[in-house]
Amino acid sequence: MMKFAIFHTSVLSLTVSGAMAQTGILDLTRLDNYANQSKPAYILRDNTPQGPNPPANAITNLGATLGRVLFYDKRLSRNGTISCSSCHQQSVAFSDNNTASPGVAGSTGRHSMRLINSRFSAERRFFWDERAISLEDQTTRPIQDHVEMGFSGTEGDPTFSDLVTRLSAIEEYRVLFAAVYGDATITEPRVQRALAQFVRSIQSFDSKYDVGRAQVANNNDPFPNFTQAENNGKTIFANPPNQGGAGCAGCHRPPEFDIDPNSLNNGVIGKIGGGTDLTNTRSPSLRDFLNPQGQLNGPMMHDGSLTTLAAMINHYVAPPTNASIDPRLNRPPLNLNQTRRDELIAFLRTLTGSAVYTDPKWSSPFNASGQLTLIVLPATAARLQPNAGATTAVFSATGVPGLSYSVESSTNLVQWNPVTTVTASSAGALVHAVTLGTTTTFFRFTYTPPAS
Ligand code: HEC
Ligand code: HEC
User: What is the tens place of the pLDDT at every residue in 422-433?
Assistant: First the structure.
């Protein structure tokens, strides 16, 4: 009459390690910590919507887990070849070494952006040109882009609702959406909220900068763990040009190193493939633009045109002017000799963390053949899925003969409501008949020992 779509067996043992990424097992009984990660006390900027408008979207472990699955799933692209992670790779701070990233129909018009600490910015708009009004708004745009993932509804592409139809037919999504949202319905806002939670969870605060910053009262104090060159570089980064600095901090603001929301373009106005583009006023956080080995996580700027640190510093020493350049960069060349350039670079190297490159919670949940092999639900919980046309289903399990168990139901795997009690038969059989409604419901038998 029914099948246990996906269920937990208590004998299943799992090793939680980096190897998890390859097993394709998603264990909802041992969710990774996305919601309550520690962050330094000096990190105050946060673009998480607080509600009511736009609706609050605090990270939850289940929501970010769904976001992780979506982020790594190639089925979110028209022809099943591209996922978000194709262009946002963990090994390069969720960016891409390619200047332009290949999508389902050609390659991107701009360089991919790092997704490190996306949450910790005052700027709430996303993309180089800030055309997305929020991270939630941003997340489904690549899916609906003709070049990137191809559910654009134009040029012969399928539409987003075709994607909803595709995902709704996938068992693991019915389970995951039901677990996160209380029913299995897939909508664009639900996809957006889960993806935004996952992206906001990607944080990096274990850099040398953080070790030093935690020991002083403010950014301008010398950091005890820094070399003299690094401390000098920190001052050059912070001070405005008229005080002998390079003025970087005015736009890339420590300690988040997020972009000043008022920044205009920085004088980089090239376009991949030729032409000019004056619209780029956002930068991702400068944290982790270098990897732990000190190499660039992909070329710099929206057009990927700056490929060495020396070229980047040269650009800022004397920014070429244009009609809408930020006035702070419309200035005489900086007076920055080689020693001071080296010090500035030494400081920039302190902004890189390490865990974010390797933590499995930000890695692909799929196995090597791109599948989820098992979703583990809380103990003895089962999602009842009727055969077509069935109006009732039987939920059964094995218990201890003669003991009374409580039958509990849930629509979100968090809140469990008692339904009735059943007593296990002499063979240990626990059986409960359920009338099926329209809502996906999870059931479990629980046994509570009598108080002594
Ligand atoms: C084909 C490559 C490609 C794919 C696939 C892709 N992106 Fe991107 N992503 C980019 C590029 C390129 C940009 C910058 C585009 C621009 O500014 O016009 C970007 C920008 C972003 C940004 C903005 C970051 C910031 O700081 O403003 C976020 C967030 C993001 N992508 C998340 C995602 C998510 C989530 C997905 C999957 C649903 C995804 N991307 C799929 C290439 C890609
Ligand atoms: C007036 C604001 C402003 C100032 C001052 C400024 N920047 Fe930028 N920076 C930006 C903007 C805007 C971008 C994104 C530009 C683009 O790609 O079109 C950017 C991009 C960058 C990038 C590339 C980021 C990436 O993800 O590719 C680096 C590195 C950088 N800036 C370093 C610096 C340094 C070092 C200084 C000081 C010497 C500095 N910036 C001064 C506004 C500024």
Answer: 887 877 788 888
